[in-house]
Write a structure and sequence with these properties.
Its cofactor is Mg(2+). This protein has 44 helices and 37 strands. The chain is of the alpha+beta class and about 1400 residues long. The chain starts with 11 loop residues before the first helix and ends in a 22-residue tail after the last helix.
Length: about 1400
Amino acid sequence: MTFFGRKKRQDNDIENSSGSGHKRNVSTVSATQVLPKRCVYVNMPFPQAELDQYGEPKTQYAANKIRTSKYTLLTFLPKNLFEQFRRVANIYFLFVVLLQLVPMVGGQTDPILAALPLISIIAMTAIKDAFEDWKRHSQDNSLNKSRTIRLENWNNVNIPHGQSSRLGKLLNLGSYKNKGNNSVSGYKGSRSLGESDLTKNNAKWTASRWQDVKVGDIIRLKNNDSIPADVIILSTSEPDGLCYVETKELDGETNLKIRHCVSSTASLKSENDCERASFYVESEPPHSNLYSYTGVLRWPDQPGIENDQKIEPVSINNVLLRGCVIRNTEYAIGLVIFTGVDTKIMLNSGDTPSKRSRIEIETNFHVTMNFIILFLLCLGSAIADAIYYLKPTSSADFFENGGGNGDSANASGFFTFWVSLILFQNIVPISLYITIEMVKTVQAYFIYSDVDMYYEKLDYPCTPKTWNISDDLGQIEYIFSDKTGTLTQNVMEFRKCTINGVAYGLGETDTTRGAKLANPDQNSKVKDGVNLDAEKELMLTEMTKLFDNRYISSNPTFIDSKLYQDLRAADRQAKAIQDFFSALALCHTVLVEHPDENNPYKIDYKAQSPDEAALVGCARDVGFVFLERFQDTLTIELMGERKEFTLLNVLEFNSTRKRMSVILRPPEGGVVLLCKGADSVIYERLEKGRQTKLREETLVDLEAFANEGLRTLCIAYRVISDEEYNVWVKNYEEAASSIYDREEKIEQACEMIEHSLILMGGTAIEDRLQEGVPECIATLARAGIKIWVLTGDKTETAINIGFACNLLQKDMLLIVISASDKESAKRQLDEALDKFFGPNAENKNSKHALIIDGETLKHALDKKIKPQFLELGKRCQSVVCCRVSPLQKAKVVGMVKEGLNVMTLSIGDGANDVSMIQEANVGVGIAGEEGRQAAMAADYAFAQFRFLEKLLLVHGRWSYIRIAEMISCFFYKNIVWTIAMFWYQIWAGFSAQYLYDYTYIMLYNLVFTAFPVMFLGAFDQDVDAKTSLKYPQLYKRGILQEDFTKSKFWLYVLDAIYQSAICFFVSFGIFQFGSSHPTGLTNNGLTDLGTMVAGSVIATVNIYVGLNTMNWTWMAFVIIVMSILSFYAWVELYSIWSSLGFFRLDLILFSELDFWFGVVLAVFISILPRYTVKYLHKTYWPTDTDIIREKIRKEKKTKRKRIIDLETEEDKVPITGSGRILDNNSFNTSSITINDDMLSDSSLSDTPIKKEQVIPKLPKITTIPRGRTISLRSEEQVYHMQSGNRQSFTGFAYSSEESSFETFRKSVYRPTKPHLLRKTHHRSNTTTAIEEETINRKSYLSTTSLNRSQTLPNTLFRRMSPSPSRSPSPNRSQRYDDDRRLRSEGEEVELSVMSPSTPSTPSTPPS
């Protein structure tokens, strides 16, 4: 641009902040400002202060060789062992192994055998880690050896040249001096750059590896090349210095971005140009912000003037980041500024914050309790041993030298304690953690492989990024969702606009069409629907009368022939329309693409924001076509007439500004600022005292658009004098040239020019809901999950989308909190709590929704007010937060997560959602139109919001139930095994004598009992996926955490103690007298007893696990039977070895009926109580799951009976032509049905779940009666806490009880699950009946949740009266004429100078 080449004024910000202690104000740049700035020199000598005593640069930069792997060959073993022994359980087992090396404690145990289980677990984990790290190494090596083109045979003064002789430096053996140039003179051949005196002309482009690239190198990138480091663009092949880059690998966005070369270096095209140029870059330190960079390029001015330098600011738009790809650009030359770990992609490559599942955290309690049980067992054995020591007739007097384990009772007890610790060590399961990891890996694979969550359009499956929190998916109570791109498609369509107070656009939204279908009586008074096809033809005819629009798309979304009728009038309104659409065609940063080479009139626009592409696309269809951007020239075609505008400045959009502006010079001269942004932002900057009536009318139109669910923006302009612009641009240059606090200074400069704006009008864009969103939200609500929507849209838009997606319903009272200060926010929150939830609240049983905007939210998140806000939000069924910032989203999630101690899930699709995704217990990213930043930062990623339904209700619930039962069974089986050895100590004098052979102990957790419990954790199902989705209320068990409790743990412990006693004492009783074998051997030895007890325990625990398995398949049966038989197979194999006391044990035991009788009897008595309790519980106190499982079993039985009856009647009943054999009414109607009273409860409907309350075993939920009366709040649905006024909501809402809307819903939102539309009798596993014997059962199940209406699940929308919108109506022309008459009498509206006709001189604002 023209002002980039001007002479640099004194830059105090840079000169005074060269030190590392620079103190700065708040900035978006990270806190790396405490680091010193970086200077990179090109063909210039280093300042002496930056050289060491050998003439080398003091600062050494990171190499470009990257390593993302954890280990190397040298560090793998120590580092991996350190990582594994950070687990307390592994330290415990290592301590036990070391304890067995002590002769007095573990002398009877082979140390190798003792360490084998621990070694196996450590080895398996190490192999897994090594394999994962080997893949990282392979990827790193492939990347580091990639090729790029680098300038060689020239002197890069930024890198030391004696690095290989550091020892020589220390010994002062080498003589080093700076190899850079000693002087700089003016570069005569260039307008702007200095030239080195020493020109060798030896430089050439050479292929090089990425890992060899250094800071200060100059590289040449070709089209489709990946960028090896962060580089500043010096020049490109494009005449205007543009470079197109794809950032998909960096932020997931697939649309191309525009980058510009530094204008002062645009003439560097060849090797010699680069070798002769002389300049340096003053850069900020490395930081992780992908969207921010501040630097300055300096070079000498005209020769002979000392200390005078020219300067050009360098921003992120002049930088290519590592990981991006050059597109549509022949070549680009760049200067390497950051390498290796200093590049932004590496600084952002840190892992997602480490998350631990709730069950994993609560497992610590179980482990602690097991340690306590172990301590009590050891302590009891030690005390008992000391007592036995003091007995005068102890066996130790006869068999042990010294009478026991020590010289005294205390010493004997002390040694017995530690020996018992070795004996009972298996009570803490050594293989628990590795089993959990394996099971969760399998669960992650199932999620990834689910075709129902695969999105074919993007070829994107549901991808688990964090594998260890799958069970958390089954306990989610609060979901925090973004709106745009998450609930909606983020595919924008321009529908309506308001220009100079007149609304245009006849396109109806899904919301308005649905309202008409849902309530035809109320809408009969409203204008009948318009034939859009006919209106489109009329519009094209009217357009043709004015001009020929060759660039119009085949399917324009904006339709209104009245626009061209007004254009043809050639009056003030026509000029306003021209200026409005000209602004849309000019105020943007889009790229022009020609997808069809054979059709030059087919134009597509690529933009960073879908809104921006929709605005420019609509301007094209109307006849105001943006054709191209060449250097600083914008070419547009206005109603067939081509015009060129000079682009002076672009004031870019960001989440703080909420607006973007361009400063142009029209062909007629002058300077014009065009600005578009949120209505609140634009209205604050309008010229005071002008356009009062126009502002009100435009605001009414915008509110009407928002009530139809449309996204609105305002368009404004300002004419600037040359004198004002020249003064401002100097301030802007200084701000843009700052290294520190550049963004704040630029924002201040923008405020100086973006004021006194003239309002032109507003736009309305439709962002349609994603497919299946209403069904999904309704199902999740029935599951007991509360959904909060956090969006940046205005309140009216968010509310209408809330109604459309079933988040808000007609019978809800919307509590609107809007405050400008803390006192007002606190007062409104207190009043809302007292009025609607206090002791004197009106209609306590009604449903409420909370609506709060970002400004109020800022105050509500204050520590003093947060409790009231949290309490109010907890009591409301739905919450919508509008105009929120990314930081506020994260704070809201953190407030609910910590304040209520609940499981939270955040879901979003954009970079502004990353903070809340990482804050929640589970983060889900949508891979959509805004890129994949959210998907990359999330724990789970998929392409459509509706997939959340199956992820939570099916996979999440399964994972929670499986993991909870698996861990409980894991602890149970180890306690049974260990306590049985404790019973034996009574007869062993508490001498810590082993009951089992040591090989049994070693293989117990690795082979004999490992696979049934692992199968339970990986494959078990209580009900299938279809049933889980049909009865979402089953999910509430996870919210209430009923499957993994402390009471359940202690019940399993009691079960284990009982079963261990049975297994031991039955075997001990049978073997007490022994029996003789034909060979002369007896079977009353310790080995025989231990084998019988071990066989009983192994069979008991495996059958017990099978008893807790709910989905008995052939695989489950085979695994349990094979696990039991594996023990006897091992005894058979082991007895062949000539081991003392074990030789041919199989012949002694397996041939005795006593042995088999004892095992069967012990197993039967052990399992019988558990089986009895389970039977009684399922029969008389069933859970929801038991009821549904019984229902499914009866349906299957009924279905089989029908098939048999049909086969029997085939020969008797002739088949009709239609193939129908049996009428539906002839089916047996005596089947049972679930009674509504049995499945009704209100305990979870009106008040949130409180973890501190004692929850009954089977709380009830009350359903809303099917014949609901008209809501009391249908006319006064919105309550504004600020004013205390009620009002009727002016938007469109739907009623889930209106069947008239069903046809429309089916046509717009195609159900994603086939079973949602099938009739019940078509299901393979379900019918409409269930037996009356279940009438008195209690259940969580109800047809609704959170008091939602009792209807079919696929009738989801609610209805409200249509908006009294001013959108195009029959009397619009009359209104326009009245408005024009009023303006002619009083108000003067000033317009811009951009119309194709001869512009009028901007009028002076009235004083």
